[in-house]
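Office hours follow-up: a student asked to see two folded examples consecutively, so here they are.
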Amino acid sequence: MEPGQERRWRVPPGHVVVKCAAAAAVTALLVLYSHDPQFLFLAGAAAIGLNVLALRDLVAPVRLAADGDGLTVVTGYARRHRLSWEQVVSIRVDERRRLLLHTRILEIETADDLYLLSAFDLGSDVHDAADELYRLRARTDR
């Protein structure tokens, strides 16, 4: 990576479109079936949840960015936190198998925090992102 360039990992646009469409559909159902109190409660909760998730993807689509100086990670709902490479203690991939699920999470550890990012957050395989972060960090350690 050349100086001044930045690598970004973002939520895939297709996922954002699906979340927005689902939020719109559930919100429309909420309006159409507003006469049924039980449905109104369930659809209202689903509509709020889907709209919150879709809005986060629209407000903070880039979950991780890296350059020669360090990383920028989205924390909380949509706050960005800047980390220098010196603050990063380790970068690793945690893999777990439980029942029929296989999960992979990219872990970025500092002295005070642990940032967890999934393939859905990154829009790519977590191993590929970790490898790229290792290479970028190694270039800055020289």
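And the second, which I mentioned at the end of office hours:
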Amino acid sequence: MAKLSQEELLEQFENLTLIELAEFVKAFEEKFDVTAAAAVAAAPVGVAAVAEAAEEQDEFDVILTGAGEKKIQVIKVVRELTSLGLKEAKDLVDGAPKPVLEKVAKEAAEKAAESLKGAGASVEVK
């Protein structure tokens, strides 16, 4: 097996996805009985920021994907959640998929999603 230079190794790592790279680091740690704490600190800022953002998401969007059969009930729930007027709430429901709430806490997003699902709507929380 030919020995790869540091530059060739970096080119190979550049083509990996973040998940593949994380799996490689874990396998490397297990095989050589080391921790990659120093390597993580040397990782590009963009990769570290993406990993951190994925782990610590604290703002969620509640997106109405469909009104279902009980459209009037869904409109009522949308009005309660957003304090929109009747016309604006109806337009939002008719224009699904649309965000109902944006950048809310996880608990508020889950509660809103439950209320909308209870009214017969289909909902996504992102």
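Two things to take away from it. Strands lie at 60-66, 98-104, 122-125. DSSP finds seven helices and three strands in the chain.
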